[in-house]
Specification:
- It is a single chain.
- The chain has helices spanning 35-47, 58-65, 84-98, 114-123, 135-145, 171-178, 181-207, 211-226, 233-247, 253-275, and strands spanning 27-31, 51-55, 72-76, 105-109, 127-130.
- By secondary structure, the protein is an alpha/beta fold.
- The chain folds into 2 domains: 16-145, Response regulator (Rossmann fold, 3-Layer(aba) Sandwich); 171-275, Four Helix Bundle (Hemerythrin (Met), subunit A) (Up-down Bundle).
- The chain has a 5-stranded parallel β-sheet with strand order 2-1-3-4-5.
- Pfam families: Hpt, Response_reg.
């Protein structure tokens, strides 16, 4: 079953002679709470001719994995309901009890610091895919994990360096990453829409001094920001999440207000970019 792509027909796959023939028999499960990332991963996997399913949290992933067979799982690490770490630990427990084959799980993450690597390895993940995801990067990863001789096999993960800090995306850089404007435009629209929803949720969480909900919306916003490449907003959000958890919402009120304005300016820039054809 392939992921659904809104608007029009399915995306055109790459020429078959450019893709491994055995990928036609492979199946990938994508787990992410961001609709924008699910949209992107579905478009890229369709482009690569790989069948896939999309779910929005670890609990839903475990339910599908209990009844269906996949060759690879690509999962966000931090999600509501059940995060990727908990999902992977439970999947490994089930595999040990059943004596079944190990399904490779790759972390889909916005950053890859030493602590992130430790958490991935501790829960039983096999590798990682650093956001933002491009067609070339995903194809490279699948060539390893969906190789003809390595489907379902345990192998050491390829090493991927964290992407360097980048300036704001341009039309040219987006086309270089995602191929065509028909792919880029709905991704931008979805990202902007989701970010505005999370800004509204962040404002409500601040008003009620709800630290947990504030951190939740900050996490979602930093995920959206990282979607198009690293910006100055990402370290701001990480700093805010740490300080809100330590000191509470009230003490971070001014910094949160500044962050809100900075995100609004970034979204205005993306909106102009989307309309500037």
């Amino acid at each position: 079953m392939r992921g659904n792509k809104p608007g029009g027909g399915p995306p055109t796959a790459l020429p078959a002679d450019n893709l491994p023939s055995h990928w036609q028999d492979a199946r990938v499960l994508v787990v992410d709470d961001h609709a924008t990332y699910r949209l992107l991963m579905s478009a890229l996997l369709d482009k690569l001719g790989v069948a896939h399913r999309l779910v929005n949290d670890g609990q839903a992933a475990l339910q599908i994995l209990a009844t269906d067979v996949f060759d690879l799982v690509i999962s966000d690490c931090r999600m509501p309901v059940m995060d990727g770490y908990t999902m992977t630990r439970e999947l490994r427990r089930r595999e040990r009890e059943a004596g079944s084959e190990r399904v490779p799980v790759l972390a889909l993450t916005a950053r890859l610091e030493p602590e992130d690597i430790r958490l991935c390895q501790a829960c039983g993940m096999d590798g990682w895919l650093v956001k933002p995801v491009s067609l070339a990067r995903l194809r490279e990863l699948l060539r390893h994990w969906l190789s003809d001789t390595c489907l379902h096999a345990r192998q050491a993960p390829p090493r991927h360096a964290s992407p360097a800090r980048e300036r704001r995306p341009t039309r040219a850089s987006l086309l270089a990453s995602f191929g065509t404007w028909e792919v880029v435009e709905p991704l931008l629209s979805s990202l902007i829409h989701e970010a505005h929803e999370d800004l509204a949720g962040l404002a409500q969480a601040q008003a009620s001094l709800d630290a947990a909900l504030t951190v939740h919306h900050l996490h979602r916003l930093v995920g959206g920001v990282a979607f198009l490449g690293a910006t100055e907003l990402e370290p701001q959000a990480v700093w805010l999440m740490d300080n809100v958890q330590r000191s509470g919402v009230a003490t971070c009120r001014m910094a949160l207000a500044m962050f809100h304005k900075d995100v609004e300016r970034y979204l205005q820039y993306l909106g102009k970019l989307r309309l500037d054809k």
